[in-house]
From TrEMBL:
CDD domains named among the record's database cross-references: PAS_like
PANTHER family: ARYLSULFATASE FAMILY MEMBER, BLL2667 PROTEIN
Gene3D superfamilies on file: 3.30.1120.10, Alkaline Phosphatase, subunit A
Organism annotation: Oryzihumus leptocrescens
Name of protein: Arylsulfatase
């Protein structure tokens, strides 16, 4: 096949170089015309693995307590990288990984749920920045993505799209996974290619339960077999992005029970143990120092004795959850090996898209969404609520959506300070990476300490494949890659650092790295605190970012950021601070704290209409796309046809018992159940049964005030006649669920009202002609705007923690 011009995509059809006479006599075919594009000779398969919400000190491969035999297996035959860096937040790291460009420059200064009107925060990749899978696909690779995506804006996760921001629009031939920031592992709301397919039918099967990590591996292996069944030579690019170890921490008890008693010593002692093993393995230098515990984290010795078992179980579940992820990645690697292609597959395995997550707050939580909704719960309350849903032994089961204590995350980021969201420090930005490509590594089991960044991964893959970054795609001139290839480090442990300068910024926490120097500028806000009091110092007319304390480290001599040199080198502090502002302007980081803009009243204009109608069998509406009923009055109505023998079942339901609402008919009576994150559960039922024939029903909520979590009065109507109601003292201020969808005519997956759990999906047995949400202003315009602003504040809070 003739070598095409790869600098322009898609590749052009080659000119006909055969001969076409008037008849076949003497005519000569040109078989290159019907061949699909092929990559350069020798281009390898690529398996890119990304673990979610995990720290440098988690996997045993890097000295951690979590057994990761498959990660170690690849490291011992490949290379460990101990100075690899990410962005400190989910979507930004993924965007940088799959575009080889800085995250703000491709619109992902924040997470996919929180899109705003500033260029660096749109959650929409510019057409000038074609993603890596698109480049590989157009150059002859088969491409597929499995698992977590988190790169589609919140309001675009339905059939109206635009689908160009789904995985297939990024250049993946096939996708199986979930679009949002996290997912239940037992009851995910799944997408396949360009369709939301919802919760698997075998959810709740006690004998053979569905489990997303298992299914991801199954689907990946199935896809690989299908590709090879069609084409024995075409290289593949597989992006395997686990939902683990993001909350909810879901795993079968047999995995968690492997760690019984292994965390009874607490987080302080655990850090010391991990640090000692890290030195034994050589993944941290012998002269490195363990950083001190910040006062935001309690000492283990100060934890009340009756709570220690509760806390220890949180970490046992997280560890079992993480080991299971290693197991399922291992299954994919085994399948590639059985195909005889492991030696020709470049495996890049990154353990964490940011540091371990501290978003469970100090107490941990039976429901990860309590923190995002700003629900203050003490450790005693968390223990009581956990016991309500089955206690410690159910931590990890479908009945809860748990997240461990922030102090366990701090230990998981050993030996560094802080963690996820904190882009100023290595605890949020440095993660383990292993590369396996046996025929091209001269010292299997070796260590690499070049400064590398997530933007470098795509540049390295293209370099190894022999594919240039295109200068034009679809006629659009392309932004050059921001990453640098580190391919030479595979062959040479002493290869020079090529990535010598890099900015970092996440929610105002920022850093500037250059030639070994690291200027850390962290806002004083505790990452898991989003109260109005905590945010008040960062209001637009109040916050002066140059007033934040600055810490200076020289990383070649200080691997862990243990020694702040700022007082001794004020000139270097000013030099790096000035460089940060220059880089921030260049890569669209400005304005700082655009992530929090909605908290300060910078919100999109109100929509002209507040009435949303659903007709037909609409299912699995993404949680970010349901009508915005939060912090305001609203009504839900439905036109029904009740058959002569009556009807029962769900009219409309959102999410599940840990946060959601359901309007349904039970025992012939209209019923409304509302779960305020599983902390408070309210239920109202009509006094009289529904008549047969055509009937109109309605649930109205009259809010008390324009404030988050407002209480109010519920009234149930039948043909405009009140038939029941009651008070709800608290409502959800921001979002019911991070992943569970809304359904018309049924309640898929986990159900809102556990009284009908054994009848799930409790489909309506009559006819639903229409369901309508009325969220038009019920108040004066001024009050309505205030409620709208509060709702956007809460929506932003979800984005920060996904």
């Amino acid at each position: 096949m003739r070598e095409p011009d790869r600098t322009t995509l898609p590749l052009t059809t080659p000119p006909f170089e055969g001969r076409a006479n008037r008849t076949l006599r003497g005519s000569t075919p040109d078989w290159d015309l019907i061949r699909h594009p092929e990559p350069p000779q020798g281009a390898p398969n690529v398996l890119l693995v990304l673990i979610d919400d995990a720290g440098f000190g988690n996997p045993s491969t890097f000295g951690g307590p979590i057994q990761t035999p498959n990660y170690t297996r690849l490291a011992e035959a490949g290379l460990r990288y101990n100075r690899f860096h990410v962005t400190a937040l989910c979507s930004p790291t993924r965007a940088a990984l799959l575009t080889a460009r800085n995250n703000h420059a491709v619109g992902f200064g924040s997470v996919g749920e929180f899109s705003s009107g500033f260029p660096g925060y749109t959650a929409m990749v510019p057409l000038e920045c074609a993603p890596l899978p698109r480049i590989l696909r157009d150059n002859g690779y088969s491409t597929a993505a499995f698992g977590k995506w988190h790169l589609t804006p919140d309001g675009q996760q339905g059939p109206a799209g635009p689908l160009g921001r789904w995985p297939t629009g990024w250049g993946f031939d096939y996708f199986y996974g979930f679009l949002g920031g996290d997912s239940g592992q037992w009851d995910p709301c799944l997408a396949e290619n360009q369709k939301i397919i919802g919760t698997p039918a075998d959810y709740g099967d006690e004998e053979h339960p569905y489990y997303l990590p298992d299914a991801m591996a199954d689907r990946t292996i199935e896809w690989l077999h299908g590709v090879r069944g069609q084409d024995a030579r075409k290289p593949f690019f597989v992006y395997f992005s686990t939902g683990c170890s993001h909350a909810p921490h879901h795993v079968a008890s047999e995995w968690a029970d492997r760690y019984k008693g292994q965390f009874d010593q607490g987080w302080d002692r655990l850090r010391e143990e991990v640090f000692a093993r890290q030195k034994e393995l050589g993944v941290v230098p012998e002269d490195a120092e363990l950083t001190a515990r910040d006062e935001a984290f309690p000492a283990w010795d100060d934890v009340p004795p009756r709570l220690k078992a509760f806390y220890a179980r949180q970490m046992e579940v997280y560890a079992g959850y993480s080991e299971n992820a290693d197991h399922n990645v291992g299954r994919v690697i085994d399948a590639i090996e059985e195909l005889g292609e492991l030696d020709n597959t470049l495996v890049i395995w990154i353990w964490g898209d940011n540091g371990a997550s501290m978003e469970g707050t100090i107490t941990g939580s039976f429901n990860e969404m309590t923190m995002q909704n700003g629900i203050p719960l003490t450790d005693e309350m968390q223990l009581q609520l956990s016991e309500r849903y089955g206690g410690e032994e159910s931590w990890g089961a479908p009945i809860m959506d748990p997240h461990y204590s922030a102090a366990w995350a701090w230990a998981g980021n050993t030996p560094f300070k802080w963690g996820k969201q904190v882009g100023s420090h290595l605890g949020g930005t440095r993660n383990p990476m292993v590369i396996h490509w046996p025929e091209h590594i001269v010292d299997p089991g070796g260590l690499r300490s070049q400064f590398t960044h997530v933007t470098d991964v795509g540049a390295t893959i293209l370099d190894i494949a022999g594919i240039p970054a295109p200068s034009r795609v679809d006629g659009i001139e392309q932004e050059p890659l921001h990453g640098f290839t580190f391919a030479d480090s595979l062959l040479d442990a002493s290869a020079p650092d090529r990535h010598t300068q890099q900015y970092f910024e996440t929610i105002g926490n920022r850093a500037m790295y250059k030639d070994g120097g690291w200027l850390a500028m962290k806002t004083p806000r505790i990452p898991w605190v989003l109260t109005p009091e905590a945010l008040r110092p960062y209001a637009p007319d109040v916050w002066d970012p140059d007033g934040d304390p600055a810490e200076l480290y020289y990383l070649p001599d200080d691997f862990t950021q243990a020694h702040d040199l700022a007082a001794d080198h004020p000139d270097k502090v000013q030099e790096l601070r000035k460089l940060f502002w220059k880089e921030a302007e260049r890569y669209k980081v400005l304005p700082l704290l655009a992530t929090l803009s909605a908290f300060f009243g910078i919100t999109p204009p109100l929509e002209a209409t507040g009435k949303i109608e659903f007709r037909g069998d609409v299912q699995n509406v993404a949680p970010g796309m349901i009508p915005r009923i939060y912090n305001r009055s609203y009504a839900i109505s439905a036109d029904l046809v009740i058959p002569p023998d009556g009807a029962e079942g769900v009219i409309v339901a959102e999410a599940d018992h840990l946060g959601g609402f359901s309007l349904f008919v039970d025992g012939g009576r209209l019923t409304h159940t509302y779960s305020m994150m599983g902390v408070f559960v309210y239920r109202q039922q009509a006094d009289v049964p529904l008549p047969t024939g055509e009937v109109s029903v309605r649930m109205e909520f009259a809010a008390d005030a324009a404030k988050p979590a407002t209480g109010g009065q519920v009234t149930l109507f039948m043909n405009d006649t009140p038939v029941g109601g009651g008070r709800m003292e608290h409502t959800v201020p921001m979002r019911f669920s991070a992943y569970a969808g809304m359904d018309i005519g049924r309640d898929n997956g986990g159900v809102v009202d556990l009284s009908y759990a054994d009848r799930r999906p409790f489909a309506f047995t009559g006819t639903i002609k229409k369901v309508a949400f009325d969220v038009k202003p019920h108040r004066r315009a001024r009050d309505e705007q205030a409620i709208h602003t509060v709702a956007h504040h809460a929506h932003a809070a979800h984005g920060l923690s996904s």
